Amino acid sequence: MDDNWALAQNKERGGRHMKKGTIRFIWSLAAILLLVFSQSIFAQEKFPARPVTLIIPWAPGGGGSINAQLLQPHMEKAIGSGVAIVNKTGGGGTIAWNFVANAAPDGYTVGIVNPSLVVTLYTTKTGVSYKRFDSIIYTVGVPAGVVVKADSPWKTFKELIDHAKANPGKVQMANSGHAAMYHIGIVGIEMATGVKFTHIPYKGSGPCVTALLGGHADASLIEISTLLPYVEAKKFRILAVSSATRNFAIPEVPTFKEQGFDLDVGTWYGYVVPKGTPKERIKILHDAFKVAMDSEEFKAFYKKQGGVVEYKDAEGLAAYLELQDKLWKKIIDFGEFKPIE
Amino acid sequence: MKNLDRISGIILFLLGLGIFLKSLTYPIGSFRSPGGGLFPLLASILLMGLSGAMTIQAFWKKNTEESSKAPFFSTKDAPNRILFGFMALLAFRYLLPVIGFGPSTFLFILFLAKYLGHYSWKMSIFFSVLTALAAYYLFQVWLKIPMPQGILKI
Amino acid sequence: MALTPINLFLCLVGCLLGTLIGVLPGIGPAATIALLLPVTLALPPTTAIIMLSGIFYGAMYGGSTTAILVNIPGEAAAAITCIDGYQMARQGRAGPALGIAAFGSFLAGTIGVFFLMLIAPPVAEFALKFGPPEIFAVMVLGLTVLNYLSSGSLIKSFMIALVGLFVGMIGIDISGVFRFTFGMPDFYDGIGLVPVLMGLFGVAEVLVNLEQVITRQVFATKIKGLLPNKEDWKASAKPIARGSLIGFLMGLIPGPSNTISSFISYAMEKRFSKHPDRFGKGAIEGVAGPESANNSACAGNFIPVLTLGIPTSAVMAVIVGALIIHGVFPGPLLIKNNPDIFWGTIASMYIGNFMLLILNLPLIGIWVKVLKVPYGLLFPLIFLFCFVGAYANNNSLVELNVMIFFGLIGYLMKKTGYEPAPLVMAYILCPFLEEAFRQSLIKSHGDFSIFFQRPISATILSLAFLFIFLNIFTGLKHKRKRLLERI
Lengths: 341, 154, 487
Fold this sequence. Notes:
The complex is a heterotrimer.
Chain A (H helix, E strand, L loop, with lengths): L1 H41 L9 E5 L6 H17 L3 E5 L6 H9 L6 E5 L1 H9 L9 E10 L1 E6 L7 H10 L5 E4 L5 H13 L4 E4 L3 H9 L5 E5 H9 L3 E6 L14 H4 L7 E8 L4 H15 L2 H10 L2 E5 L1 H22 L6
Parallel strand pairs in A: 1-2, 1-3, 6-7, 6-8
Antiparallel strand pairs in A: 3-10, 4-10, 4-11, 5-8, 5-9
Helix pairs in contact in A: 2-10, 4-12, 6-12
Chain B lengths: L1 H23 L13 H23 L4 H5 L8 H22 L1 H16 L4 H22 L12
Chain C lengths: L4 H19 L5 H13 L3 H26 L8 H12 L3 H35 L3 H14 L8 H16 L1 E2 L5 E2 L13 H18 L19 H23 L4 H16 L12 H24 L5 H12 L8 H4 L1 H32 L4 H20 L2 H20 L3 H25 L5 H4 L1 H32 L1
Antiparallel strand pairs in C: 1-2
Helix pairs in contact in C: 1-3, 1-14, 2-3, 2-12, 3-4, 3-5, 3-11, 3-12, 3-14, 4-5, 4-11, 5-9, 5-11, 5-14, 6-17, 6-19, 7-17, 8-15, 8-16, 8-17, 9-10, 9-11, 10-11, 15-16
């Protein structure tokens, strides 16, 4: 009888116990499941799980596009997913930059930036502040050179400036676009040396080259990558270069610093994502970019172009953007460029 | 043509006037450093001059037999047909982002074939379905042109 | 050398793609070439250039096809072909029109490449002398010649050209001012060419045809032959020759040289013709000349790129970019440093032209059958075609509105005696005209005499004024004749 009772008790207790056990079991199961799922809900999905898009603000064939195209194949290998290049032209680059700034900060939308980002902030109403981006990496800088035709009477930068001082407004400088970065660069030279040029606007660096070749302008400020073939063909002479140190492709050309002023008005390319992108994803992108940057093709290409391949990490790019912002703003204020509507 | 000349002349004159006034709101600059408004200003003056001349000429010209009797629309039905066609274009344009490329194409072709082409319902449906499918495959799938997708997400 | 099987094959692929692109408006050669750039990265540079040139030429051929068949130019240069080509199609002569366009393009292209080979460097040097005042002069000449495009009233064509100028001014100008944009960001870079073309040419033409109940055929049912006959050839020989020369010369000048050369050729043929009133009603010279001109202009386009490294248009810029990516830096030393690229490109142009001729001739039979579709079913397709083209141009619904608007305008224009071609041509010329105008004035510090002090621009401007003067003179002569007849 006792056994029965005991059994019954046991059963009861067992039942409750089993009930308790079941409950405990269910709770533990739930806890385990929660942990398991929380790993996938709250932790990162594997990034990138789908192709990353590089938004290029310029037409294909141009310097920025080429920079991205050189990096793309190596990035794809390094990052494990596709890297798509999308050209979104217009607004001097602001359409693409707005697009990237407004995109979801999930690391799948990456933008490429150059000095025009900083310049257009002040010269257009659609400009985007670099503060709306998180930097990834800086890849290369191509300095700008003050260039004249080879048969021009000015053999040195000083001769050009002296002539310009003596004849204000007579020296005609071709620029790649009104209020574009090289136009502002030339105004920067005016600011630093106190001369006054006449500025003739063209659409892009190509037409500036044509204008110089045809004698329709006296001089210009153009990225040296465009100029090198003409220097080699003895059609152009570069009088001074904007980098801090002499450029390896044209070692005989003095720098702006040697002339007594410092204007880092060359072009460069860096990559950014919308602000708020998770740091781990930025790191993944950064590492992929770095691998691509270190590739032989990238280095060889820019060696031929006079480009200075230089690595700056995310903080480096962010700091450089601040420096550039101060520099360009100073010239823009001097030249009284205002956003026009 | 005489009446038409008068009307078109006046319209063009007004267009020129409008552009003239708008160009004044842009920086004109000077000939030394021409601003954005200079070129439209000059061109609009030219337009006003020419259209003014043509309108005046149209008012003075004596009635000749050929032109003034010719009706604007060549058939009685024409205004309705043109209006229908035009409305169809607008409808297609505004349906496109709502229901997407495929369905909009289907409806567009259907109504045009039926009401302007005077085909039967059977024929129109057949043709419009065929066209919509072909267009979908050719443009959206094969050429990968990103078409508006609308609520149906097609 | 360049004639390896793989190069030939890829040239064919390029030509096919290009033709397809040309037939489908809204997807221009520049965009396609850009899309294919990553693909070409895997190819050696000579091969890449050959393929890209194939696309470029193919697009030219394809664009004329739709111009003739349905009055929709595949790209701007083909807009001139619409004028007489489409009329020929309506008369059942689409075959001969397509045929002469293909043959003319082939002959002109070959002649152009031939010239390119012989005299590229000195001609390129000459082209360099074209600074802002000269370019302005060329654009003014283009505008004055526009009058020859219409068979109607001179003053109307001039006025509609002015309207075209205004359409071209929409958007940001070279000093950063947004003009006539009515606050719409879609217009900041201007109104797209493709929606305007689709509307003015495609939609408007259909609307006019819709007035009739569609029982009658818009296109003549009896197809009169598939290829040009002997008379056609006789009539077209000189236009092809003249067109080739004009096209090649104009191709050197930066700017919309393909388009300008085609309408200067049209104007010239009309002027030199013994029966100028045939133009606009299906005169084959109106197809032969312009088609030849715009093809040899392509060869001319390549010259500044190959001899000086300067791209003359968006498509050329992409090709230059392709070269740069492959490590070839176009510049004055290209011929010396990379002769294989230079000669490879030239060879590809010969081959490309030939391939396109072979490709297009059999297609004529197919295209002509398209016209046999009853108009009641054909016109919705034409509308659809315009829609896709206008939308695909920039993925913009706003551009569809532009197209519909210009369709309405084009319809009204047709009913009141204004022709669409001067509008489009002026629209294309406008940015170059104005930019050159302003650059010249900046250079001269406001002195207008700069246009007349320089020999080249002075000559061209005098030509332009001569044209205007002659126009007014013959106009007055006609008026006097009619007055005399009344008496």
